């Protein structure tokens, strides 16, 4: 924010609020005087949501985005009438105090003529919104286009333990309760009561592009076109309903899919007659599990009505059967007759549990008794209808069966063999089809050997699971039919439901993963609406999942093959989006539990074993909005043995492979404790990094130490005569490594136990150096010494050791993300040669858990006449910084300070005996050091010297408020007196303040100030949270007095206070 056209630093930026992670709303609150606390709540949900701004860095005064932090809005008991609430924050939970207490109505008298209460803004496409424990009451506005009480058009949306009703049941409403346009929507524990809609409106409408999962929802006395009307238009646009009840609802024919309680149409083109396999794995899915229908009436005289294109369906233990289903459109009696044989399991009129025998010497006309068994598995399960709580058990004798293309569908079937070497089931190469496909049902396989066939095109998985359901394997050995053929399909593919694996073995297999045309597979591949994977006491050996043809091929006429290779890596968008292989690929899941398993000699691109892309809080197990009890990720007593990530071999540049982890990659959103607490008694003999991530703070093996039974601290030496190669002696003083970057990449540490890198004398040109959520110490060699030492004294000076950034890597040189970094005894030099822009920091410290200590160092540049375009050192809000005995010399900045240090109310910053000499800010936008001080922080500048620093406008023509040495910006925080809005209550410790002690400011020059500028508000100044003690000012000049003598100025200190 600019207070004046001349003062373009944005001196009033402190007025922009930081983001709030918890806000309170109460009917007795105030939208003008409230601040969202329990003591001073807002009055409306609209205001609380409006102040929950996007948490991009530019909006929340951060150097990095904070968009994964959830904002929680606690809505107290009361009745709220709200205008349209537009969600702009990326992560949000709106939580009431129960459907009996917290009631929200849509305001149909507001200026915005709409019936909509909640919608997500179009630019918030990655929004993740939860709504819990609220009663929604719909008021009817009238006929509107594309409107609903809750519009779900973008992101992911979860509604839990809520209710929906209408204010006036005498009026037919023209807008639904919910209209859904996206696929990741989850509703659980919802009550829909007494809705009166017109004949063209349903209570829930799913339009093209949308899909949803319903769990434990009740629909009572709903009248309209349908209770649920859906148009399923694409892959993964599924409608999955479980434990739902429909009571006394009435449906009429209208312009949307209608006429039955649930009316489903599909616009997805499929050909189940000639392309059955591809249609089955790509078509939208509709499943009903454990649902009850009572007293409903409709125009079609059925509970479910299908029209449009054919899709895959499943009904599990519902109180209806095929007699309660009608169909039209492209649905034919032939198709319906075909799918009814497996699409109903445990429903009304189905068979009880039974055991059938299958033997290689049987015949397919017998009843399946021990003395008269079936010959084929396909005939044994034909026309069987067990499902849900009733189970069909196949007792299969010794022999080999090639009965593939089995459709378990919605049924529950258990296959029990005579032993893993005696009973073998396999699919055929020529048929290009799975062994078994489950659609909402359950498949149990026990004491059997499975043999998987490869095919020229993917058939999903040898075992394919869609639309809810379960696959459970016990004592199963899985092998490939032909090891010479690469596998285009996964062994197990699941887009929903659960997988349980116990006492199993997955033996050698090579899977095809390629970018163009796209083909991705692995031993276990889980995506979309998958729920949980549990593996116990199982072995996975030599599973190869790396890229089949990675885009790293050299061209014979390339001038620089390595540069070409790295250019291919950087510029290939498909490769950047590729998850990275692994034998277990979790593109989406609710929970993962792996206990007492061994993973041996597996290879992938970024990881050889486990690849987790996305995990969510478990909606299905939530009650009242609270998370489920068990951890969503758990590893216990697992062994990782010599696994590999081939990206490490294909790519030489370390910055391009920061994201690899040979055993595991965690790419989902998490906090460090989520991982540390839930990986126990595991070990790894794989090379480092063992655990990787695309999240910067968890790269470079930050979490590797979890896989070591001994928590050892590693020390590595680096020298110019070293070799970047890992052997039994590499990294020792006699066999040093060559670069610091390689040493960081190949050493182990944790947040509590630091690794130590010792630098011999020399000039090291390095790529970016990353320190994630771990602890690292880098120590150089002191002047007049020949080798590094860990003991230092005040007489030590840097000199023989120097780190220089490689300018070709266009990013910050030393980066800390929620880690702890100590730098000692070396020169840090930034390359500003060739008059090229230098838009990156020398040291960038990010995150509220970050901490850096810089001791006996020197900051410098290669060309004292050239300029930098970013701060040499930048500290994000919330981090901690200590600098001791460090010199900052001859650095010129175009418009940024040399050091930009943000001191939050929780920060500790200590600068002791720092010399800032001959530094210049060319455009007079700051002093050499810019301190952003938020009330309550602790900061001390002790015995620092500011000499010959310049921040004056060219030819002394400016009158900006800045001095050459130090800019102190006073910023409001939660500890500020003004934060209480007139209460006069000061809540911070009086000792928490900014102190400048025994410092010298000599011969500095700026515009309206010579040495020091203090900016802020009168209120913040009156808090007296900063002090100058025993400081010396001499020979400083405010340059504005030459051209603007009428303006106020201060040769030493200038206060610019609003």
TrEMBL record:
UniProt-listed InterPro entries: Pectin_lyase_fold/virulence
Top-rank lineage group of the source organism: Eukaryota
Protein name, as recorded: DUF1565 domain-containing protein
Species whose genome carries this gene: Streblomastix strix
């Amino acid at each position: 924010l600019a207070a004046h056209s001349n003062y373009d630093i944005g001196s009033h930026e402190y007025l922009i609020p930081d983001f709030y992670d918890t806000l309170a709303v109460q009917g007795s609150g105030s939208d003008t005087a409230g601040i969202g606390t329990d003591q001073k709540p807002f009055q409306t949900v609209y205001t609380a949501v409006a102040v929950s701004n996007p948490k991009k860095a530019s909006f929340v005064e951060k150097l990095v985005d904070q968009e994964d932090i959830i904002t929680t809005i606690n809505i107290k008991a009361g009745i709220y009438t709200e205008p349209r609430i537009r969600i702009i924050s990326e992560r949000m939970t709106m939580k009431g105090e129960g459907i009996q207490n917290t009631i929200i109505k849509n305001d149909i008298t507001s200026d915005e003529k709409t019936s909509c209460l909640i919608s997500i803004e179009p630019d918030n496409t990655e929004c993740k919104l939860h709504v819990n424990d609220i009663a929604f009451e719909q008021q009817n506005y009238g006929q509107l286009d594309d409107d609903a009480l809750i519009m779900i058009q973008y992101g992911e949306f979860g509604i839990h333990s809520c209710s929906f009703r209408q204010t006036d049941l005498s009026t037919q409403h023209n807008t639904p309760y919910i209209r859904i346009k996206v696929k990741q929507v989850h509703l659980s524990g919802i009550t829909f009561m007494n809705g009166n809609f017109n004949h063209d409106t349903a209570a829930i409408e799913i339009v093209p592009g949308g899909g949803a999962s319903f769990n434990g929802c009740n629909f009572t006395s709903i009248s309209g076109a349908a209770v649920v009307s859906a148009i399923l238009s694409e892959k993964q646009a599924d409608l999955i309903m479980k434990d739902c009840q429909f009571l006394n609802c009435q449906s009429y024919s209208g312009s949307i899919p209608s006429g039955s309680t649930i009316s489903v149409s599909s616009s997805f083109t499929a050909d189940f007659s000639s392309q059955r396999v591809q249609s089955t794995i790509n078509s939208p899915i509709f499943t009903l599990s454990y649902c009850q229908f009572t007293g409903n009436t409709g125009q079609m005289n059925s509970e479910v009505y299908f029209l449009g294109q054919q899709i895959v369906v499943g009904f599990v233990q519902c109180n209806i059967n095929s007699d309660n289903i009608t169909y039209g459109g492209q649905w034919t009696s032939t198709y319906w007759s075909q799918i009814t044989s497996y699409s109903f399991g445990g429903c009304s009129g189905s068979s009880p549990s039974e055991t059938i025998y299958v033997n290689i010497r049987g015949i397919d006309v017998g009843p399946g008794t021990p003395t008269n068994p079936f010959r084929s598995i396909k005939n044994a399960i034909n026309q069987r209808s067990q499902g849900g709580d009733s189970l069909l058990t196949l007792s299969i004798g010794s022999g080999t069966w090639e009965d593939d293309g089995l459709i378990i569908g919605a049924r529950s079937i258990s296959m029990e063999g005579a032993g893993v070497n005696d009973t073998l089931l396999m699919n055929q190469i020529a048929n290009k089809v799975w062994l078994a496909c489950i659609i909402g049902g359950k498949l149990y396989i026990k004491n059997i050997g499975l043999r998987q066939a490869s095919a020229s095109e993917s058939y999903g998985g040898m075992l394919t699971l869609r639309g809810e359901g379960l696959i459970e394997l016990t004592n199963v050995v899985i092998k490939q039919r032909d090891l010479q053929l690469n596998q285009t399909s996964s062994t197990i593919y699941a887009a929903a439901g659960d997988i349980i694996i116990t006492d199993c073995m997955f033996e050698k297999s090579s899977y095809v993963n390629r970018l163009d045309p796209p083909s991705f597979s692995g031993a276990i591949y889980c995506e979309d609406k998958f729920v949980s994977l549990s593996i116990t006491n199982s072995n996975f050996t030599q599973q190869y999942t790396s890229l089949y043809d990675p885009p790293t091929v050299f061209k014979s006429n390339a001038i620089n093959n390595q540069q070409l290779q790295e250019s291919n890596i950087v510029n290939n968008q498909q490769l950047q989006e590729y998850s990275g292989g692994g034998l277990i690929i979790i593109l989406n899941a609710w929970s993962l539990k792996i206990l007492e398993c061994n993973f041996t000699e597996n290879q992938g691109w970024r990881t050889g074993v486990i690849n987790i892309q996305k995990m969510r809080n478990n909606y299905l197990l939530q009650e009242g909005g609270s998370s489920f009890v068990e951890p969503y990720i758990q590893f216990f007593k697992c062994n990782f043995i010599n696994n590999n990530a081939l990206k490490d071999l294909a790519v030489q540049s370390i910055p391009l492979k920061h994201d690899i982890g040979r055993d595991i990659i965690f790419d989902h959103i998490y906090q460090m404790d989520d991982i540390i607490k839930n990986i126990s008694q595991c070990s790894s003999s794989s090379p480092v990094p063992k655990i990787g991530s695309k999240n910067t703070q968890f790269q470079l093996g930050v979490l590797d130490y979890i896989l070591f039974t001994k928590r050892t601290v590693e020390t590595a030496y680096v020298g110019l005569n070293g070799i970047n190669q890992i052997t039994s002696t590499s990294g020792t003083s006699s066999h040093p490594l060559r670069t610091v970057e390689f040493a960081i990449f190949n050493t182990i540490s944790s947040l509590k136990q630091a690794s130590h890198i010792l630098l011999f004398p020399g000039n090291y040109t390095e790529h970016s150096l990353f320190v994630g959520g771990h602890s690292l110490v880098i120590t150089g060699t002191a002047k007049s010494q020949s080798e590094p030492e860990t003991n230092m004294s005040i007489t030590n000076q840097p000199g023989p050791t120097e780190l220089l950034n490689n300018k070709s890597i266009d990013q910050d040189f030393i980066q800390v993300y929620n880690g702890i970094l100590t730098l000692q005894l070396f020169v840090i030099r930034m390359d500003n040669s060739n008059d090229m822009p230098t838009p990156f920091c020398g040291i960038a410290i990010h995150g509220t858990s970050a901490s850096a200590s810089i001791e006996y160092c020197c900051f410098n540049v290669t060309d004292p006449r050239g300029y930098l375009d970013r701060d040499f050192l930048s500290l994000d809000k919330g981090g901690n910084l200590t600098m001791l005995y460090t010199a900052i010399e001859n650095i010129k900045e175009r418009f940024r300070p040399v050091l930009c240090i943000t001191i939050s109310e929780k920060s500790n910053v200590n600068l002791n005996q720092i010399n800032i000499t001959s530094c210049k800010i060319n455009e007079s936008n700051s002093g050499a050091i810019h301190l952003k001080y938020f009330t309550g922080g602790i900061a001390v500048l002790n015995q620092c010297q500011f000499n010959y620093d310049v921040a004056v406008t060219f030819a002394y023509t400016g009158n900006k408020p800045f001095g050459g040495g130090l800019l102190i910006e006073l910023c409001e925080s939660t500890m500020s007196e003004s934060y209480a809005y007139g209460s006069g209550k000061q809540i911070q410790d009086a000792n928490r303040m900014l102190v400048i002690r025994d410092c010298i400011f000599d011969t500095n020059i700026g515009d309206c100030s010579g040495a020091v500028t203090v900016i802020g508000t009168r209120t913040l100044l009156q808090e007296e949270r900063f002090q100058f003690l025993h400081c010396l000012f001499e020979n400083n000049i405010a340059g504005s007095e030459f051209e603007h003598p009428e303006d106020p100025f201060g040769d030493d200190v200038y206060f610019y206070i609003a």
